[in-house]
Automatic annotation (TrEMBL):
PANTHER family: COMM DOMAIN-CONTAINING PROTEIN 4-8 FAMILY MEMBER, COMM DOMAIN-CONTAINING PROTEIN 6. It comes from Lanius ludovicianus (Loggerhead shrike). One of its GO terms (molecular function) is NF-kappaB binding. This is COMM domain-containing protein 6. Belongs to the COMM domain-containing protein 6 family. It holds the Pfam family COMM_domain. InterPro entries: COMM, COMMD4/6/7/8. Residues 120-187 form the COMM domain. It comes from the Eukaryota.
Length: 187
């Protein structure tokens, strides 16, 4: 991971660290590594989404462990340095700065840790389509609904999950959402 961190420019690494801290503080639902990876690649740096996601997971673990152990900035940097860490100097500087500025605000209550194991809903998009024909059937005229859910998993990675439903399935899906909404109104 240290080799991959070396290739990330300092400003992008700082942005990644700040987004992770914000996620741990429950200010944002997750870290959009796909968007950040695309911006890093556009700047001319070769890195893939899987490597960036691994780095984000490592940093998330690092910051949450430091918060759980109430580490000061110096204790965190000393621990990273004494663990035989091969982190580049610019990464240690960014970690020091971000932890010094925002690290103490990380909420590590037991309730927050228990609820974070499920993931978090971020957005929903849908579209109506009609399948006109296929290579095995000349005339389908079959309507369907495509739903895309944007979800932040417990580590903060934002992903899209898509699925298709027939119109009757969608009506059932919609009815269940209406039931949830009415129950939530009573709470």
């Amino acid at each position: 991971a240290a080799d991959k961190i070396r290739v990330i420019p300092q400003d992008f690494f700082a942005e990644l660290c700040e987004q992770i801290i914000q996620h741990l503080n429950h200010k944002i639902p997750g870290v959009n590594t796909a968007e950040l990876c695309q911006r890093i690649q556009t700047s001319g740096v070769e890195i893939n989404i899987d490597d960036l996601a691994k780095i984000a997971n490592i940093l998330s673990f690092l910051f949450s462990t430091a918060a759980r152990n109430n580490l000061s900035t110096e204790e965190l940097v000393t621990t990273l340095g004494s663990a035989g860490s091969t982190l580049p100097k610019h990464a240690l500087q960014v970690i020091r700065h971000v932890w010094n500025e925002q690290g103490k605000a990380i909420a590590v209550s037991e309730d927050a840790r228990n609820t974070a194991t499920v993931g978090q809903f971020v957005d929903i998009k849908w579209k109506l389509g009609v399948a006109m024909s296929s290579d095995t059937c000349r005339s389908l005229k079959y309507p369907y609904v495509t739903v895309t859910l944007t979800v932040a998993d417990p580590s903060g990675q934002i992903t899209d999950k898509s699925f298709e439903m027939t119109i009757p399935q969608f009506k059932n899906f919609f009815r269940q959402f209406k039931e949830m909404a009415s129950v939530l109104e009573t709470v």
